[in-house]
Amino acid sequence: MISPRKLLIPVASLIVAGAVILALYRPAGHDVVAVEVEYAEGVTGYLAQPDNGGTYPALVLIHEWWGLNEDIKHTARRFAAEGYVALAVDMYDGEVAADSDRARALSSAVRADVPGAMANLSAAAAFLRSHASVRADDLAAVGWCFGGGWSFQMATGDFGLDAAVVFYGQFDPEADLSNAPRILGHFGEEDAGIPLENVSRLSSALDAQDDGHAVYTYPGAGHAFFNYRGGENANYREDAANTAWSRTLKFLDGAFGG
User: Fold this and answer.
1) CA dihedral sign, ordered 159, 162, 166, 170
2) Are strands 19-24 and 12-16 parallel, antiparallel or unpaired?
3) What is the DSSP secondary-structure string of the chain?
4) pLDDT digits (tens, 9 = 90+) for 162-208
5) What pLDDT score was predicted for residue 3?
6) Is there a contact between 142 and 62 (Cβ–Cβ < 8 Å)?
7) Which residues in the chain land under pLDDT 50?
8) Can you tell me the distance from the alpha carbon of 156 to that of 164, in angstroms, rounded to the nearest whole number?
9) What is the pTM of this model?
10) Helix axes 114-129, 100-111, angle to 10 degrees
11) Are 1 and 245 spatial neighbours (Cβ–Cβ below 8 Å)?
12) Residue 188 and residue 206 in contact, taking contact as beta carbons nearer than 8 Å
């Protein structure tokens, strides 16, 4: 499995119609083109997709509590290289938190406005479904930390998803999962903020639905074990991150009938 550090390869920048486009190439998988897009009025996200024509499944990517930073943009390009049209949304009106205090304030403000957050995510889903490179019926959500919680809410809401991936996001263990799409959960066993008892309850509830769900826990990993963040994330665990990435790709492939 290729680690995030090994995928930090040079990109070529182009200017097209006033937008900055990043073309990313890798030896295996698809060539990728990425661009900033306005997916709702006044809301700009980061769209990465294969650069060789055709139509592909789409992913709504929801950032950690830091905001739409370079780390999730890099992850969007990784997904695009695997054959997905990935839109990394912006829940913070363009701001990226510089420290945990600001991240806490920004994430709390979004949680205090659930209708506004859901409208943002609904606009992202609609944007992808209408995109020329997207197979309109193939849509999933993937979120990390703060974004993992919103991915879970998209799964239990009326978004018509095929699948949702939750990386160590908060969830309601009593949520009604009867109409939920396939859900994949990744949780660190040492995550102090998400009790393993609740993870076990979620896993049991999903097993009862018998619809391709899966929940994994990772020994020795705490919260935020997946994202490398340029080496600044002390919680990053490469082995767990690589395993979770492989499981996510396999899960999505199955959800989209691959």
Assistant:
1) positive
2) antiparallel
3) ---GGGG----EEEEETTEEEEEE--SSS--EEEEEEEEETTEEEEEEEESSSS-EEEEEEE--TT-S-HHHHHHHHHHHHTT-EEEE--SSTT---SSHHHHHHHHHHHHT-HHHHHHHHHHHHHHHHT-TTEEEEEEEEEEETHHHHHHHHHHHTTS--SEEEEES----TT---TT--EEEEEEETT-TTS-HHHHHHHHHHHHHH-SS-EEEEETT--TT-S--GGGT-TT--HHHHHHHHHHHHHHHHHHTT-
4) 999 999 999 999 999 999 999 999 999 999 999 999 999 999 999 99
5) 34
6) yes
7) 1-28
8) 10
9) 0.89
10) 90
11) yes
12) no
Phi first, then psi: give them for residue 166, nearest 5 degrees: -120, 110
The amino acid present at 68, given as its one-letter code, is: L
Which phi and psi angles does 59 have, rounded to 5°?
Answer: -130, 130
- Give the type of residue at 243: T
